[in-house]
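Backbone geometry tokens:
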Amino acid sequence: MSARFATLEEVVSDPVFPEVDVALRRGRHIDREDGEWYAFVVDAQDHLEPLYRRYGCELVTQSDGYFYLLPTGDQLSRRHLSSGEMLVGQTLALQYLDPATVSSGGLVTREQMLTRLGGLVPDRELAKALEPRRRRFDDERIIHEIIRKRVAEAFRHLASLGFIDVLDETHLRLRSPLLRFADPVRGLTGAEAAMERLIQRGEVVEPEEDAEPEEEDDEPEENDAEEPSE
């Protein structure tokens, strides 16, 4: 146990606790790049684990260097990514595993990601996954607009959950929690090729459910993507 915190009272009294607690409950992943937050969770882990179990959650720690809350009961609601967000997340995970991304410090451009997505999923199929309630996909211009708009929205949502950082209008930084999307193929020979096949077949394998973010959707209901079934 860390000498920094002897009791749960000391943990809860720390000025960092409210920010970290709210972030975790909203589905945020906390990794080494979060600096003070990450150091706090590491030091307080022995006290936080039993605290969150009382709320029906497990504080999960991964060897890749990140924490998140996993609901195990009904006290906190659960959340799902849309199938389109899952495709974007899986593609980001694939890019994260690319040696070129490692050498760039995790930096990629939006155009790189759009190109990689387009190389794995035909535009029409990708647009259908990103906007499943739309019935017609006849106009190529509209298809490309849907892809750019919905992928940009997926980037923002994934950033709010700690999977990536949106640095500016051009650049993204990929973070270690993206490896959750690669869990179905990790340990397999040719894991990257296996991930590509999952994406190409449209097999959405969602990470274990997280606590639901306390935020409202601003999109009109007719444009909302349906949640994938469990």
